[in-house]
Amino acid sequence: MLQKPNIIVFLVDDLGYSDVSCYGSDYYETPHIDQLAELGMRFTNAYASSALCSPTRASLLTGKNPGRLHITHAIPIKGYKRIDGGKGTRLKDADYVMNLPLEEVTIAEALKTGGYTTASIGKWHVCDDSAYYPKYQGFDINIGGNHHGHTGEHFYPYHGRWRMAEGHPWVEWNTLPDGEQGEYLTDRLTAEAIEFIESNNDKPFFLYLSHYAVHTPIQAKKDIQSRYEQKAPDTLKGHVKPAYAAMIESVDASMGAIMEKLESSRLAENTIIIFTSDNGGYGKQTSNYPFRGNKGNFYEGGIRVPLIIHWPGVTDRKLISETPVITADLYPSLLDMVGLPLMPDQHQDGVSLVPVLKQKGVLQRDALYWHFPNYVGTGHPNPSAPLSVIRYQDWKLIESLEDGALELYNLKADQEESHNLAQSNIKLAKSLQQMLERWRSQTGVQLPVINPAYQKIKNEPW
Asked: Is residue 83 predicted with pLDDT exceeding 80?
């Protein structure tokens, strides 16, 4: 009897929608990820649950919307304070949960009950306390996962140094405790993943391979970077930075090494692979062409991400789906794909993608929702203020929580979100706003409050 399928979730940090060749880049080279797309289903309307990392990762692990979890910001950001003498922001950042509650039954815990061995290799970043590390959330193995949002160095000794803001204490750490001179983190995490596969080739496993790349600092292997320095950049699409391109190529090589190990171990035909990103690309390094926006805001460039699912025996050829899907869907999808019972009380905001993957049905869902009751400051190219978002069919509404201002876009006709139709289509805008209000009430999201000390200054970004 064939054992349950193995599962690999291959998550890239800050990878933009078009940072992959099969999603439109003519500069970045990703032959192995492209090969996965040839073997599976490529989604063109896939969304991250947030424009920032921690909320999306929490959503992936729980099957819940970040608003329901109250994990809405990048842990442990406390709200960006202006440094120009202004009195804060119009609203006070809503408080948010900084540790993924142990009461949540993570996808790892759900799979363990089905006989899976589980490993988290790479970035974790859904907590601010070591008592909430992967080993307490259903993972048998944790390599490189901690409460930090990045590695300070992508080369050994992987030293990190960070502080919340000027005046705050510095925190220092090493992403991995050992290594060799010249070792590159993406390669090391890949080697650890391959060792895990080798050690578990006779029983079902769940590998959560969560690369720190391509998050800053932008550090690449020089031999790869030098090739891109000689290559013509793609200025039309905004793909122009050799070091960033080299980091993407190293991630692609990781995918190639994983796929090769599965083939040589005769596991390829019984291993599900999911490839995706936690949010849009960082605007100072790449462009999320053809979309507006980037990591940190909720235009399409900040939340539309690549998603490829290869399910042997089901998606064994090049397939493309335009169905809108979101990170929270991965939890119920995986349970459904491996024949374990769904847990609707847990993955309340995700739906199984099996009907789409089998091309035998549609999803029974009317809309997708996002909620961000916080601020993203000037560290990002496009600052963001508190808002809620709904995508309903081809329509997308963004509601400001500061003043109630509405933005309405038809994504089919205007994927760049350049024409705000809220005033010319007031009836639809109000209808979608009401849907957002009902959803916020039903999910119990947290909301920001008025900041009584706020003083407006000229040309502020929010």
From this structure: no
The predicted-structure confidence for 238-284, as pLDDT tens digits, reads as follows: 999 999 999 999 999 999 999 999 999 999 999 999 999 999 999 99
Which has the closest alpha carbon to 303: 47, 107, 117? Answer: 47
All residues at 6 or more sequence positions from 120 whose CB lies less than 8 Å from its CB, including other chains? 108, 134, 139, 141, 142, 143, 145, 208, 210
Model-wide pTM > 0.90: yes
DSSP state for residue 334 in the 8-state scheme: H
- Buried/exposed code over 375-410 (b: 16+ C-beta within 10 A; e: otherwise): bbbeebebbbbbbbbbbbeebbbbbebbeeebbbbb
Closest CA to 347 of 178, 111, 78: 111
330-337 helix and 53-62 helix, angle to the nearest 10 degrees: 30
Token pair, residue 319, equals: 């397939």
Is 16 within 8 Å of 297 (Cβ atoms)? Answer: no
Is residue 85 predicted with pLDDT exceeding 50? no
CA distance 236 to 228: 17
**125: which 2 tokens?**
């970043």
pLDDT in tens, 355-413: 999 999 899 899 999 999 999 864 555 668 999 999 999 999 999 999 999 999 999 99
270 secondary structure, DSSP code: G
User: What is the separation of C-alpha 211 from the centre of its chain, rounded to a whole number of angstroms?
Assistant: 11
Strands 171-174 and 159-162: antiparallel
> For 88-169, where are the E strands, in sequence order?
91-92, 117-122, 141-143, 159-162
- Could you tell me the two tokens for 323? 């169905």
Q: How far apart are CA 311 and CA 319, in angstroms?
A: 11
Burial class (CB in 10 A: 0-12, 13-18, 19+), 147: buried
Maximum Cα interatomic distance, the chain, rounded to a whole number of Å: 69
